[in-house]
Specification:
mainly alpha; f41 fragment of flagellin, N-terminal domain; two-stranded antiparallel sheet; 5 helices; 4 strands; about 5% strand; rod-shaped
């Protein structure tokens, strides 16, 4: 039916063209960003889930860094304890020498001076070893890890005991007599065992943090994969849609032009 007041076919063609243009714009945006969801209107539920997953990844990434920093601090502590063990072995040498009856009193004084220097250096290492500007020994290390949820939160605590000649029961020892040297030797051996046990505890904590790091890295990969499944555009399907909507845009324009020509036909009838 020909009508003058309303060109229904033209309105229909225009509406269809507007719909096509909206879809085409959305498709072009997806191709330019690589994302299927670019606003809340695209997929409200999917966007909410993806944002939650992004928070998980952010928290896990920082937690990995926290654990790495913790391992670094433990490695610094272990290195310091290794040096202390070397010093204790030197103390064993001078104490064993001083305990011998072939050593003179003057030589024992010299050996005791060396021993006191060793114990002083042990205390210095214990008090001056730092990590990131903080004292390593005599503190409590707590490494916090989380995936941003309450259920996914954990921490690893490590007691970083004070390390000094006094804490290792060496502060009262001297090598001025053979008897004192023998007693000091027993204390030195006890100190060596104590340092070895401490290094073992630190090593176990370091392994625990490393294992946690491996788990969190795996979590990050899996969560990112899940987020990608929600957010990423299917490039193959989106490219196919681009071709479809481009053709529909062209045919829609042609249909709109044709409908306008039909309206002109009514005018020609009136002119006859």
């Amino acid at each position: 039916m020909l009508s003058i007041l309303n060109n229904i076919s033209s309105l229909q063609a225009e509406n269809a063209l507007n719909t096509t243009q909206t879809s085409l714009n959305s498709t072009l945006e997806q191709l330019s960003t690589g994302q299927r969801i670019n606003s809340g209107a695209d997929d409200p539920a999917g966007l909410a889930i993806a944002n939650g997953l992004q928070a998980n990844v952010t928290a896990l990434t920082q937690s990995v860094q926290n654990a790495t920093d913790g391992v670094g601090m433990l490695q610094v502590a272990d290195g310091a304890l290794s040096q202390i063990t070397t010093l204790l072995n030197q103390a064993v040498t001078v104490a064993t020498e001083s305990a011998s009856g072939t050593v003179s009193s003057a030589q024992r004084v010299s050996l005791d001076n060396e021993f006191q220097s060793i114990t002083s250096e042990i205390s210095t290492i214990g008090s001056s070893t730092t990590y990131n500007g903080q004292a390593v020994f005599g503190t409590s290390l707590t490494v916090f890890m989380s995936d941003s949820s309450t259920a996914g939160t954990s921490s690893v605590g490590v007691a970083m005991v004070t390390v000094s000649a006094a804490s290792l029961t060496l502060s009262g020892d001297n090598l001025t007599t053979a008897g004192n040297a023998t007693a000091a030797l027993a204390d030195i051996n006890t100190a060596i065992s104590a340092v070895a046990a401490l290094r073992g505890n630190l090593g176990a904590s370091s392994n625990q943090l490393q294992a946690a790091t491996n788990v969190m890295n795996s979590q990050i990969t899996n969560v990112q994969s899940a987020e990608s499944g929600i957010m990423d555009a299917d490039i193959g399907a989106t490219t196919a849609n681009l071709s479809k909507f481009t053709i529909l845009q062209q045919t829609g324009i042609a249909a709109l032009q044709q409908s306008e020509q039909m309206q002109q036909g009514v005018l020609k009838l009136l002119q006859q």
